[in-house]
Write a structure and sequence with these properties.
about 375 residues, mainly alpha, Lysozyme, Membrane-bound Lytic Murein Transglycosylase D, Chain A, two-stranded antiparallel ribbon
Length: about 375
């Protein structure tokens, strides 16, 4: 008898799904969640940076409820917010406190990036606080081919605090400051003047900005009482806080990050994870403050100096001048190195063509022929 595989597969899949939920996901059982309707009952007054949210206004309540429901619907995302919070929020909270800024601003970082250093938007915003390149540079962030401090929780938080201070002075309201942070101060100023109101909740703004404050408020409400919304995490469920030592380097030339990693007795990846602002595989010439694993600073400078001397002796650098008809694959094959290595050594984007006359660095070469040497 011929078996219909599709008819057999679907009931089997459904049975496995029910079984897996019952066996492994009992904490996700629908009857253990607070009802969505009860989740919308805000029993106390709601505020942002001590500025009251007028929930008695029907349109305000509707916009708020929409964002709260959307946040609660994406439960895995909320769990990740909570788990990451112990890794990054202590540093953000401390910086806000020392600057005399409202603690509620920490929820902006969660709403912007979900506390992911490499978060990016289709508009080019990057990092914890989602700075655009020009805005980040304006507020003191280094953004170049070697470093993008938008990805540093420390540097980007300092820049965000500076920006929020300016916006608060301009708009006299933290709620409007947050709206301006999202849409830009010039755009908000124009709308405020045209519409003749100083109240965010009475302004008609781009839809993204209209949602923005309410998304942040939903984050605040969940973080204030996660258990009420069905998020019960034990202490061991949270990700551990960042632990590190700071070391200071003055590089007289470009230095491979692997040299830093070796001197810190760790791996390339851990140096990159602790310093997400570092781009590529090298530190630029100049002064640097680098995070290394806790305890690795002891004896670091001695190990670093010895490793750097070994690297300088062994690297056997050669400059190759690109000729007509060359391509990167042919050059890599000719010198017995990988294409990826040439891209890394020369900071080349594979999408960008090379041209005759370009100069390429090649290390530890094994020349296969003498044709066209320089």
């Amino acid at each position: 008898m011929k078996v219909n595989s599709q008819r057999t597969y679907i009931p089997l899949l459904f049975t496995l799904l029910l079984y897996s939920v019952g066996l492994y996901g009992q904490s996700l059982a629908p009857d253990e969640y607070p009802s969505l309707m009860s989740s919308l009952n805000v029993e106390t007054s709601l505020d942002f940076c001590d500025e009251r949210v007028p929930l008695e206004k029907q349109d305000v309540r509707e916009r708020f409820e929409k964002e709260l429901l959307l946040s609660l619907w994406d439960r895995p995302q909320v769990i990740l917010w909570l788990k990451r919070s112990t890794r990054y929020l202590p540093y953000i909270e401390k910086a806000l406190r020392e600057s005399g800024m409202p603690d509620d601003l920490k929820y902006v970082a969660i709403g912007e990036s979900a506390l992911r250093p490499h978060a990016g938007s289709n508009k080019g915003a990057i990092g914890f606080w989602q700075f655009l390149r020009d805005t980040g540079r304006k507020h003191g962030l280094v953004i170049d081919e070697y470093v993008d401090e938008r990805r540093s929780v420390f540097a980007s938080t300092r820049a965000a605090i500076k920006y929020f201070m300016e916006l608060k002075v301009q708009f006299k309201s933290w709620t409007l400051a947050a709206a301006a942070y999202n849409m830009g101060e010039k755009g908000l100023e124009a709308e405020r003047l045209e519409q003749g109101t100083e109240d965010f909740y009475d302004l008609y703004l781009p839809l993204e900005t209209q949602r923005y404050i309410f998304r942040i408020l939903s984050v605040k409400l969940i973080f204030t009482d996660p258990q009420r919304y069905g998020f019960v995490l034990a202490e061991e469920d949270f990700y551990p806080p960042l632990t590190f030592d700071r070391i200071y380097l003055e590089c007289s030339q470009e230095v491979p990050i692997r040299i830093i990693a070796d001197a810190a007795k760790t791996h390339f990846k851990e140096i990159k994870d602790l310093n997400p602002e570092i781009r590529g595989h090298y530190l630029a010439k100049g002064k640097h403050e680098i995070l290394v694993p806790e305890g690795a600073s002891k004896g670091f400078q001695e190990r670093y100096k010895a490793d750097l001397e070994k690297y300088a002796t062994a690297r056997n650098e050669r400059i190759y001048v690109v000729k007509r008809g060359d391509n990167l694959s042919l050059i890599a094959d000719r010198f017995g190195v990988s294409l990826s290595s040439i891209l890394i050594w020369n900071r080349i984007n594979i999408k960008n063509p090379i041209h005759p006359g370009d100069r390429l660095r090649i290390y530890n070469v094994d020349i296969k022929s003498d044709r066209g040497e320089d």
